[in-house]
Design goal:
The structure holds 2 protein chains of 2 kinds. Chain A is built from no helices and 10 strands. Chain A is mainly beta. In chain B, a hairpin with a 6-residue loop joins strand 9 and strand 10. The chains are: A mainly beta, B mainly beta.
Chain lengths: 114, 111
């Protein structure tokens, strides 16, 4: 079946611009996660959505970062006023439900801020 | 000190050898243990998942967890050039919660 999909696969933007990254989780998965992978920092948790519960935003690095999940499915990660240190690969993962910790990752969006 | 420590490598082995990877963690609250494989410019792919001490085997892969020592391992038998990738350990405190990742070990299997 279809896995987690993300778009765009690559995004180049200028410093100060806003960007939106999209994630389509595996159908039927109720939990959705965003992670960031950058050189020297490894893979870092950003935000987690589970059903209709309030999201866990504890990993968001600043208030320039926000995320939404509409209809319990598609999620959008928005970065406002991008900075060069935001350059990284942004990965989305989904899992079946709260009792399952097997997270399946998408291919990621490679963000480059010039 | 990072919550999860993993040697970055690179680890170079000849084809057919056993690859041995490991991670250590500091917090005994971690209960779920995973290994992911990541090829260059691809997303991580789940290889092994376990939540108890002991061994779990799946084909050429064996995952080992020692909660008393806070140490996890992944063994790859009969390694192939296609196993060349970065291997990430990932640990969770509770089901359906965020994962904390090791920095990854780059593995190169030479034909």
């Amino acid at each position: 079946g279809a896995g987690v999909s993300q778009s765009p696969s690559n995004k180049v933007t200028e410093k100060g611009k806003d960007v939106e990254l999209r994630c389509d989780p595996i159908s039927g998965h109720t939990a959705l996660y965003w992670y960031r992978q950058s050189l020297g920092q490894g893979l870092e948790f950003l935000i987690y959505f589970q059903g209709n519960s309030a999201p866990d935003k504890s990993g968001l690095p600043s208030d320039r970062f926000s995320a939404e999940r509409t209809g319990g499915s598609v999620s959008t990660l928005t970065i406002q006023r991008t900075q060069q240190e935001d350059s990284a690969v942004y990965l989305c993962a989904s899992s079946f439900d709260r009792g399952d910790n097997e997270q399946f990752f998408g291919p990621g969006t490679r963000l480059t801020v010039l | 000190q990072k919550e999860v420590e993993q040697d970055p490598g690179p680890l170079s082995v000849p084809e057919g050898a056993i690859v041995s990877l490991n991670c250590t963690y500091s917090n005994s609250a971690f209960q779920y243990f995973m290994w992911y494989r990541q090829y260059s410019r691809k997303g991580p792919e789940l290889l092994m998942y376990t939540y108890s001490s002991g061994n779990k085997e799946d084909g050429r892969f064996t995952a080992q967890v020692d909660k008393s020592s806070k140490y996890i391992s992944l063994f790859i038998r009969d390694s192939q050039p296609s196993d060349s990738a970065t291997y990430l350990c990932a640990i969770g405190k509770a089901a359906g919660n965020k994962l904390t990742f090791g920095g990854g070990t780059r593995v190169l299997v030479k034909p």
